[in-house]
Amino acid sequence: APSGLVYMTGYTTSTDFPAGNVTGYQTSLSGTTDAFAVIYDWTQPVGAQLIYSSYLGGGTGAAGNGVTADSQGRIFIVGTTNSSEVPVMNGLAAGLNGESDAFVAGFDPTHQGSSSLFYSTFLGGSSFEQGYGITAAPNGTLWVVGQTYSPDFPLYGNSLGSSRNGNANAFLA
Fold first, then answer.
1. 128-161: burial string, b at 16+ Cβ within 10 Å, e else
2. Residues whose CB falls within 8 Å of the CB of residue 152, separated by 6 or more in sequence, listed in order
3. Largest alpha-carbon pair distance within the chain?
4. Does residue 8 carry a pLDDT above 80?
5. pLDDT at 96
6. Distance in angstroms (rounded) separating the CA atoms of residues 114 and 132
7. DSSP character for 159?
8. Cα angle, residue 139 at apex, residues 26 and 123 outer, rounded to 5°
9. Sign of CA dihedral 109, 51, 40, 15
10. pLDDT classification of 169: cutoffs 50, 70, 90
11. With contact defined as beta carbons under 8 Å apart, do 2 and 73 qualify?
């Protein structure tokens, strides 16, 4: 990431989450909790430090747990949601598959409003998933880690495990 930029995610119940002069993908709280994506530039003067800020959520809850940026300065968050209304854009799964799923979302701060979200997907099976960490590789792929309780978590490629062992398993996607 370019020098001076700080990328953050988490969750909020606040209806007045900081937006400054920035119009993010989602500008208001839509659930009981929403995930958020924020980019600050600490090298700028006070009042001009907020580069990008957006809620991401649906009718119930969503929380961001991990954040990364790619070489283009785009921000990616991973988290957990039990909301079927989290938007899907260019993603793998069209909707919520179980009680809760991991999600991955990508925002481009060079765009504002609805055009700033360029990627969003659910990741999970028929039970419960949590997305914990994410990193962007130099070749453009995203690496996501988390935990699954689903016996039918989607497996692709040369997966090490072909089925869930025990109550919960870690996943790498």
1. bbbbbebbbeeeeebebbbebbbeebeeeeeeee
2. 125, 126
3. 52
4. yes
5. 86
6. 25
7. -
8. 45
9. negative
10. confident
11. yes
User: Given its phi and psi angles, is residue 44 left (phi above 0), alpha (psi -120 to 50 degrees) or beta?
Assistant: beta
Residues in the chain: 173
Provide the whole-model pTM: 0.90
Give the per-residue pLDDT at 47: 85
**Beta carbons within 10 angstroms of residue 164's beta carbon:** 17
> The tokens 């747990």 sit on which residue?
65
- Structure-token pair, residue 75: 């921000």
Q: Where are the alpha helices (DSSP H) in 56-139?
A: none
For 43, left (φ over 0), alpha (ψ -120 to 50), or beta? alpha
Give the start-end residues of each E strand in 82-116.
101-107
The distance in angstroms from the start CA to the end CA of the chain is 22
Residue whose C-alpha is closest to residue 16's, from 6, 1, 31, 29: 29
Contact residues for 173 (Cβ-Cβ < 8 A; gap 6+): 123, 143, 144, 145, 146, 156
**Identity of the amino acid at 141:** T
The residue assigned the tokens 């990364």 is: 68
Residues 14-38: tens digit of each pLDDT: 988 876 667 888 888 888 999 999 9
